[in-house]
Amino acid sequence: MFAKLARTGLLIAAIGVAGCNDSSMKDFAPHANKPLPDKILASMNAKGMTRTSPVMARIFKEEGKLEIWKAKTNGRYDLVASYDICKWSGKLGPKFTEGDRQAPEGFYTVRPAQMNPRSSYH
Q1: I want to staple 29 with a disulfide (CB 3.0 to 4.6 A). Which of 1, 60, 108, 117 is the partner?
Q2: HEC profile of 14-43
Q3: Is the distance from CB of 84 to CB of 65 less than 8 angstroms?
Q4: For 35-85, how does the pLDDT look when each residue is reduced to its tens digit (9 = 90+)?
Q5: Angle at the Cα of 86 from the Cα atoms of 94 and 52, rounded to 5 degrees
């Protein structure tokens, strides 16, 4: 009985992996691959920023604001856009343990490999 279940599980896994090829993956995360809006690109160009320059995000919990900053060609950062945060979990204050529904506070470096293009939290 166990051998039959194991074979069935392996077959299902093999079918699932076989479906993961490059041609189907391009549609897997369409939101992450959307181009920047023309309005944002024009604002960045006017401020001396490139599309690929470093990005910094600042979040103000109490005010409910998210700010996006980008490096200009001179190395200084300038504000690109500000957004209202419409919903969050937890209360104001630091995160103490995993699962406490609090947002972490502090400074973090996020590299491209750490990004999740399939996230539905955007």
Answers
A1: 117
A2: HHHHHCCCHHHHCCCCCCCCCCCCHHHHHH
A3: yes
A4: 889 999 999 999 999 988 999 999 888 899 999 999 999 999 999 999 998
A5: 80
Joined together, the tokens standing for residue 47 give: 């401020």
Q: How far apart are CA 102 and CA 70, in angstroms?
A: 27
Domain assignment present for residue 94? The answer is: no
Q: Is residue 110 part of a domain?
A: no
Instruction: Check: CB of residue 102 under 8 Å from CB of residue 109.
Output: no
Domain membership of residue 61 (yes or no) is: yes
User: Closest by alpha carbon to 93, among 84, 82, 104?
Assistant: 104
Q: Report which of 51, 33, 54, 34 is spatially closest to residue 42, judged by C-alpha positions.
A: 51
Instruction: Report the percent of the chain where pLDDT is more than 90.
Output: 32
Q: Is the pTM of this model over 0.90?
A: no
Total number of domains constituting the chain = 1
